[in-house]
Design brief:
Blueprint (H helix, E strand, L loop, with lengths): L5 E4 L8 H18 L6 H15 L6 H7 L11 H19 L4 H10 L5 E6 L3 H10 L11 E3 H4 L6 H10 L7 E5 L2 H11 L2 E5 L16 E3 L2 H12 L6
C-alpha cells in the first residue's frame, strides 16, 4: 500500500448532515411565511415545498416563488407575495448563520489531521458560490489546504466523472494510490475514485443516499469520524496528534 499523502472529502451529508439542516431551514422558512400572514398549515406547506424541490431540484433558486404559485388564492389573501418570499429567504439564511456547523467528531478529527503532513481538501458538486459558502460557514478553511478545493462547477467536470478525481490528484501532484476520498453517495463518491485506485471511505449517515448502492465496494464504511480516525491509525499508519 502506498503511503497516504492526501485525504479529500465530499461536503454535503459527509462533513455535516445536509438533510437535517435543509429540513430545519425549510421548516423555519415556512413558519416565517405563516407568521407574515400565509393562511395554510405548516405540514401542508412543507409537503408542497418538498414537491417543488423534487420537481425543480434543490439547487433551484426560486422554490418559495413556485410554492406560492401552487397555493389557493385564499391562502394569500391580504398579504404581499414578495414579502412572504423575502421572509422565507431571510429565515433560511438566519438558520444557516445559527445552525450550519460540523458535528464534534468531524471537527475533532479535522483538527488533528490538520496537524499532520497530510493534504486535506474537498471535492464537491453544486453551484460554486453555494458550495463555497458552505465551506466558509462550516469553518473548513481552518483545516483544509486552499489549493485542495475542487468545486465541480468551477472546474467544469461533475460527479461521477472520474476525470474530476484525476484532476484533483494531478493538481496536488500526487498519485491516486496516495489519496483517500471520503463521501456518502456510492455512485458519485465511491465508484469513480475506486476506478483510479484511491482509497475510499463511505460515510453512512441518515441522508438521502443512506440506502443507495454503487457497483463497487468502498474500502471502509463508517458512521462517525471517530471510526475514520481509528482506520487511519490502524490501516494507514497515520500518527494523529492528540
Amino acid at each position: 500500500m502506498a503511503k497516504l499523502k492526501a485525504i479529500l472529502f465530499d461536503v454535503d451529508d459527509t462533513l455535516y448532515s445536509t438533510t437535517d439542516f435543509a429540513e430545519l431551514a425549510r421548516s423555519n422558512s415556512i413558519k416565517e411565511m405563516i407568521r407574515l400572514g400565509l393562511k395554510m398549515e405548516h405540514d401542508a406547506l412543507m409537503r408542497e415545498l418538498n414537491e417543488v424541490i423534487g420537481e425543480f431540484t434543490s439547487n433551484y433558486e426560486h422554490h418559495f416563488d413556485k410554492l406560492l404559485l401552487r397555493l389557493p388564492a385564499e391562502a394569500l389573501e391580504g398579504v404581499n407575495p414578495v414579502i412572504l418570499v423575502a421572509g422565507a429567504v431571510v429565515a433560511y439564511h438566519e438558520t444557516k448563520a445559527r445552525q450550519l456547523s460540523m458535528p464534534d467528531d468531524v471537527k475533532e478529527l479535522l483538527g488533528r489531521l490538520s496537524k499532520t503532513d497530510l493534504i486535506l481538501g474537498v471535492i464537491t458538486s453544486g453551484p460554486q458560490i453555494k458550495q463555497a459558502e458552505k465551506i466558509l460557514r462550516l469553518g473548513l478553511m481552518e483545516y483544509i489546504d486552499p489549493s485542495a478545493i475542487f468545486l465541480s462547477d468551477q472546474i467544469g467536470i461533475g460527479k461521477p466523472n472520474v476525470k474530476l478525481y484525476m484532476k484533483a490528484c494531478r493538481q496536488l501532484n500526487i498519485w491516486p494510490l496516495e489519496a483517500m476520498y471520503v463521501g456518502d453517495n456510492p455512485p458519485n463518491d465511491i465508484d469513480p475514485p475506486n476506478q483510479l485506485g484511491m482509497s475510499t471511505v463511505l460515510v453512512r449517515r441518515e441522508g438521502k443516499y443512506a440506502s443507495v448502492q454503487g457497483v463497487t465496494e468502498p474500502d471502509h464504511v463508517i458512521r462517525s469520524f471517530r471510526e475514520l480516525g481509528d482506520i487511519l491509525r490502524e490501516k494507514y499508519e497515520v500518527d494523529l496528534p492528540a
